[in-house]
């Protein structure tokens, strides 16, 4: 038998005769144009020419880049966007990819573009640019709700680029530049503020330390003065005590002699008038009496 390959239907290979199905393929068998109810797996198969035909479907994951399209956001901004779909035909449901839809690849691609238009119509440009992952997740969820009827499972969606118009991009660049300048100004002013706070805090601590030092110095000085005054007072008291003790042992004649020596020193000066206290005359009388008594005693 000769392998006879007729044509491709919806991207799938239609064949009759001797068919070899690869590991990554499944074959849907039709007899007289009617599905006979079995999906053929990998291996050798024979289809009766003219009576039976087989449609071979690739069940591997298909990465398909959807060409750039224009989409309108909620705030009426037209953006150019392209994305990549990753999907595959479920091997156990390969018959749906043949019997339910004419071209499952075209169906998945068009469905993805339609769902993406609906999603972007509910978000602003700013949200579209900043929440790309959320949009991808919503798109995949929408595809998962519809593609199973075709025997297809969407493995993932990846948005490559969201390109707004040039005018919008220029406005965004200016806004970004203004925001950067504002942030820099805030950072600089915050730095100046913090520096002033640190400087004031340092001056405060320095003033506190200086005041504490002056206080401690004043306390030490006062304590030293007090100790010195105490010592001086004690010294004076001790000296007076000694003087008093000595004075108690001095008789009248000795005191009189001391007075006379003082008078002698006064006489050496330039003064011509002297004032003597009344006690001096009584002391002189006592001295003269003591002198006479001494003389009598001597005789």
Topology record:
Elements: E1 4-9, E2 12-21, E3 25-31, E4 34-40, E5 43-47, E6 52-58, E7 62-72, E8 78-89, H1 94-99, H2 104-120, H3 125-130, H4 132-146, E9 152-163, H5 166-248, H6 252-267, H7 278-298
Antiparallel strand pairs: 1-2, 2-5, 2-6, 3-4, 3-6, 7-8, 8-9
Helix pairs in contact: 2-4
Output the keywords.
299 residues, alpha+beta, Tetrahydropterin Synthase, Chain A, 4 domains, six-stranded antiparallel β-sheet, three-stranded antiparallel β-sheet, 7 helices, disordered N terminus
Q: Give the integer mean of the pLDDT values.
A: 81
Uncertain parts: 1-9
Fraction of residues in β-strands: 25-35%
**Structure class:** alpha+beta
- The helix tally amounts to 7
Series of secondary-structure elements, N-terminal to C-terminal:
EEEEEEEEHHHHEHHH
Broad CATH class of the largest domain: Alpha Beta
Shape: rod-shaped
Going by CATH, the homologous superfamily of the largest domain would be Band 7 domain
| Count of strand segments | 9
How many domain modules?
Answer: 4
């Amino acid at each position: 038998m000769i392998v006879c390959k007729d044509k491709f239907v919806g991207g799938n290979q239609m064949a009759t005769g001797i068919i070899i199905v690869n590991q990554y393929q499944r074959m849907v068998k039709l007899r007289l144009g009617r599905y006979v109810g079995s999906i053929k797996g990998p291996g050798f198969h024979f289809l009766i020419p003219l009576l039976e035909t087989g449609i071979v479907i690739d069940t591997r994951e298909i990465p398909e880049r959807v060409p750039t399209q224009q989409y309108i956001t909620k705030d009426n901004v037209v953006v150019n966007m392209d994305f990549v779909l990753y999907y595959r035909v479920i091997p156990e449901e390969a018959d749906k990819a043949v019997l339910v839809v004419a071209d499952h690849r075209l169906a998945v691609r068009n469905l993805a573009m339609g769902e993406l238009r609906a999603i972007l119509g509910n978000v602003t440009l700013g949200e579209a640019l900043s929440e790309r992952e959320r949009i991808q997740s919503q798109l995949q969820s929408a595809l998962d709700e519809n593609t199973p009827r075709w025997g297809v499972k969407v493995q993932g969606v990846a948005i490559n680029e969201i390109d707004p118009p040039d005018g919008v991009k220029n406005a965004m660049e200016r806004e970004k530049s203004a925001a950067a300048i504002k942030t820099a100004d805030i950072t600089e002013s915050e730095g100046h503020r913090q520096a002033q706070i640190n400087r004031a805090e340092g001056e405060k601590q320095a003033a506190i330390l200086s005041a504490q030092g002056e206080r401690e110095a004043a306390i030490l000085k006062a304590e030293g003065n007090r100790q010195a005054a105490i010592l001086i007072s004690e010294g004076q008291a001790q000296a007076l005590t000694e003087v008093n003790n000595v004075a108690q042992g001095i008789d009248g004649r000795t005191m009189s002699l001391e007075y006379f020596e003082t008078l002698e020193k006064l006489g050496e000066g330039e003064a011509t008038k002297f004032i003597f206290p009344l006690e001096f005359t009584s002391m002189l009388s006592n001295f003269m009496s003591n002198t006479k008594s001494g003389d009598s005693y001597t005789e």
